Structures are given as C-alpha cells and as structure tokens.
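User: My advisor asked me to double-check a structure prediction for NGG1p interacting factor 3 protein, NIF3 before group meeting. I don't want to rely on an old file, so could you generate it fresh from this sequence?
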Amino acid sequence: MYKLVFFVPESHLQQVKDAVFATGAGRIGNYEACCFQLKGVGQFRPLAGSQPFIGDEGRLQQVEEWRVELVAADAVIADAVTALKQAHPYDEVAYEVWPLASF
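Assistant: Sure, here is a fresh prediction for NGG1p interacting factor 3 protein, NIF3 from the sequence you gave:
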C-alpha cells in the first residue's frame, strides 16, 4: 500500500479527486473514495519558461489550496499518479508518494 498526498486549488478539487478515485485509489476495505483533505496556503514563484495556471512569471504567489491524502494499493498507485497529473491544472504538480508498512 501507498499513501498519496497532493495539493490542488479548490477550482479543481473534485475533478482531480474523481480522476484519482477512478483508478481504484482511495479504497479501504468495503469503502471507496476515502480521503482526508485540509485547506491551507501554498506559495511559489513561477520561473522563466513556466506556464503558471495561477500567478505571473517572476512574482511570488500565495494561493489557497487543498491538501488531499489517500491510500492506494500497489496495483493502482502508478495509474493514480498518472491520473493526478492529467487532471491537475498546474504544469508542475506538487505530490508525494509514501510506502506504507503492514502490521
């Protein structure tokens, strides 16, 4: 199992979650579409050559985003990350994948 964490603006929150859940990620036992989400503020400065969805090249930008955490089985984690990248509006998606231990 893996834990997938990603950050997304509210405008695309449900769209991105739906794409990731469609791969089979977010399943725990007899439940699907399971996740935890928390609102916060992300910060970045688009550099030359970037194509920012929000903000302008060279200017520091702060934006409200959602942190979404969910689990994904070994068999679906690669597809979940691919779906995340395809559905997300940013040209550089901030995400983390952590292996989980079983006890």
